[in-house]
Amino acid sequence: MLELHQAGAPYYPEFFGDERGSATVPVPIYLVPPSPSHTTSRAELQRLINSIPVKIVVVDRDACIVAINGACQPYLRAVGLDLHLVAGQSYYAVKARFAAPPQDARSVSEHVAALCQHSTPFSQTLSFPLAGQDIRMVVHGERLPGAEDLFILSHLDDEDPESETANPRRYHLSMLQAEEEERKRIARELHDETAQQLALMQFNLMTLRNSDMSPQANDAYQAMESALKAIQDQVRTLSYLLHPPELAEDGIEAALAHFTRGFARRSGLQVEFRCLSGPIKRDPDMEIAFYRVAQEALANVYKHADARHAVVRLRRTQTSFTLEIEDDGRGVPEHILNGQGRDIVGVGLSGMRERVAALAGQLEVRRTGAGTLVTATIPRRRQTD
Ligand SMILES: Nc1ncnc2c1ncn2[C@@H]1O[C@H](COP(=O)(O)OP(=O)(O)OP(=O)(O)O)[C@@H](O)[C@H]1O
Ligand SMILES: [Mg+2]
Predict the structure, then answer these.
(1) How many other CB atoms sit within 10 Å of the CB of residue 200?
(2) Is 121 in the same domain as 216?
(3) pLDDT digits (tens, 9 = 90+) for 43-87
(4) Which of 158, 177, 208 is the last residue of a domain?
(5) Helix (H, G, I), strand (E, B) or coil at 328
(6) Where residue 335 sits, what CATH number does that domain have?
(7) Whose CA is nearest to atom 16 of ligand 1?
(8) Which residues form the pocket of ligand 1, taking CB atoms under 6 Å from any ligand atom?
(9) CA 59 to ligand 2 centroid distance, Å
């Protein structure tokens, strides 16, 4: 059963921490698989809709807003509303704040009423002036799959269907941001749930330590203890790699210093980290991109380079941030450098390239005299659209 908070109850403002602007994608949206056995919590629903770069409103049978995502915020602000104020309000009342022609507005209201009362899906165009611009959008309504009494209204800017590809960088950036949010959530879950359960197991196991055991039972006990320890280490490392806490707290310099130390320990490679400029001003998009590039580039050094030594260099110039990862290994094969064999190699290099390109930057991979040099450059003042 789908559990949602009641109309009028406060929702969770922490899910609206980042604003993805008004990037829109003309695709139908299915939030919850239409399986009757599917269960989701309201926090899960909120998280799901907030990771979608389309303006989404979920209403109940009375057309009261029970959930709304961050993509709506720019439009709401333009008419003097805020996400925090509209939860629990009537969808009709909020819509009335936008100066749509009466005929359009009435038609949308009728469709919403039919949707809420009879689950009748619809798609209807709505136009209105907003902050000096003529906005035209398609309102699409349908019952939320799996939920009897909830209805999803998505609002797609009705532009050229090419618009998604016309602005791929911005779209891709919002997808990457959603992916990072998801990693953060999994890291938290591993830390708060899985690690706690393992700690409980360890505690229970310890109570056996002093009991009389046959030699076979003792062997089994020892094997279980060391397996448990290995799992705990893996969970801790995985949770850390998914979302390194110091990246959000202390910034890229501290995160890379910590990561390279841990990587050297785990891999046996000599890894050095150098920050070649003064303190680097916080820039979360650049920080995540550089962190993921360093992770993948060092993983490649470990897997492919047969190197002994790698160095990671971070620097800031007047106009850009640069991250370099250099190793003293066998060098990237020529056929990879000139783009051949793209279909037989992995996704690492192309993923790094896409991440950096989403921030209007560039990734260069080249052979040096001895080894490989990967350079990611991201402009400091950038426009992603
Ligand atoms: N530092 C390096 N030294 C030598 N070869 C490299 C290095 N980095 C990448 N390569 C070569 O480039 C290829 C493509 O790298 P890429 O990261 O895209 O894929 P992968 O590492 O093989 O797979 P995946 O990253 O998907 O796990 C590698 O298979 C390897 O041949
Ligand atoms: Mg790789």
Answers:
(1) 10
(2) no
(3) 777 777 877 778 999 999 999 998 998 888 888 988 888 888 888
(4) 158
(5) coil
(6) 3.30.565.10
(7) 348
(8) 300-301, 303-305, 327, 329-333, 336, 345-349, 372
(9) 44
